[in-house]
Queue: 3 jobs
Job 1
Amino acid sequence: MVRRTDGAVPLHRDPDTDRVRAMLTRFDETVHALEPTLPRFRLAEGDILVLDNYRCRHGRDAHTGERTVRILTLRTADAR
């Protein structure tokens, strides 16, 4: 997973705040360590990327320029 948010924080008044913060720090450090080894590819104009969000952890690098995103959600009887 490449993209992550700095907004992940323990819930308000969580009695286990210190543990949650430690786990978030561990997660962030692990992601940073793995980023250089992750496969990268570029989509060309007109390309389509289809992902199964139940089976695939994914992210993207920052980009510049115009970007159009259209999301189509397909749900099958297997999605439970």
Job 2
Amino acid sequence: MPHYRGEGVFTPSEKPGAAIEIVQKLDEMSSKVHIEFVREPWKRCLNDLKLGKVDTLIARHSVSREAFAKYPKTTKNELDKKRAISSTSTCFIHKKNAPLKWNGHELLVDMPQGISVPRGYSLVEDLKKKGFQIYETVSVKQAHELLFNGRVGISLSDCQHKNLPIKFVENKIPIVENYGYLVFSHQFYSLYPNLSEELWNQLMKIDGKAFYDKY
């Protein structure tokens, strides 16, 4: 998904990426903050948040990150997915006549079906352990080409994939769902807890899907 675009330290002035545009919209909506963007390697981003050199960044949740990053929580102290800045889900796509069953936990096929998977997907090892023949590719596009050209029977895609060829379908049950959150440094949150909560609440008013659809 096009969260960010461009390279180097500068944010592109046009079509900088959906996540950037959402944060820019948030900046417009709030008169209490002025957001400046800093582009750095990811490890430095995390370290700068830990040290309080930056106030906020966009990140997935992990227990280890909670040691230095504040995530939006519900009154029950659970992650508040409604206040996430982005969400992505991955689904199986396959030939219409492929006897595939996926219940959200277990993949069943009545006959061997090779699966093309972009390199880096965490579920590759689990699929290999289940005995499936996995073809790892360097990109999502190449994984899809193996499927569409009849080399494999199954591949992966963002759910609600647009413009699938007529002989192919998507299983509607996600394999995995990921959420991106606007997280604040502990230093920033301790100084401005009400403002932090207000910004998270404002995110719920922004139609994030509309920004991603532009890309």
Job 3
Amino acid sequence: MKYLPFYTVLGVPEEKVFTNFIGNLKTSIKVWDYFVNWDKVNKNVEQVKIELNILNSLIGSTDIKKDFIHLVMKYPEVIKTLPVLLAVRDNKLEVIRDYKKGDLDYFIFDFKFKSSMSQNDAEKYFTFISESGLIDLFLDKKIKNFVDYVYGVEVGLDSNGRKNRGGSLMEEIVEVLVLKSIDNNSNLDFISQATPKKIKYKWSYQVKFDKSARSYDFAVFNKSTEKLFLMETNFYNGGGSKLKSVCGEFKTLHNELSSQGVEMIWITDGKGWLTTQRPLEETFNNNNYVLNLYLLKKGILDEIFNQ
């Protein structure tokens, strides 16, 4: 039964299966949502929009210290915007006073909502905008509107999440293709983020593994054949020594699950594998199912799930 779906779907001889696999690795899995999560950006800006508009009144101030202190005492809620202006998410900051003079004690700033503000506290927050350089945004008229400015900040902060989005994109893409196969067969059932506990609860199927809390990306159960398929996904743009250990991990995982009669499906892609072909080929030849997105697009999951 090993590799039967490859022959069926691709129509290539056994000795060409891995070559075909390598030749169809993708260079990218970027989708439109990868670049900026605009819903998140808009939501974050909306949460501080009123306070930012209040701060706008300070732009171009000729007596910024006096005006800032007066403003935050009257509208203490505006201080929650100050970390955002520095592209910082934290609402509490500890800043070393002056390491150049050997002073390693902290200024401690709390930016959580306050209903009132004392003169001393207001002066403390003025120290924050002064020492952090934020004061220049008010004095030099480098910006015209803090709301527009924070939109830019939020887009920049969101771009830092691209690495995490890249990791989850492969999972999202595979899930769409898996669900297409599920829709084509009423005997198939599906859960995502499948732990052994969830699997046992849903299908009364006991999966034993030395890491009992392990979560598999997807689990598919054929109610007709009572066959369980556990699926893991990943995508690698770059190579490196890590990929060799990844191959070893999925080889061991396959052997452990196979001994229990569970089918392990590893779906991986990316040109990073071009630098680590030998370890990948060893796992490819050991495991029943090492797939890429090209094979999924060809409908190989229908072949596998229906065996």
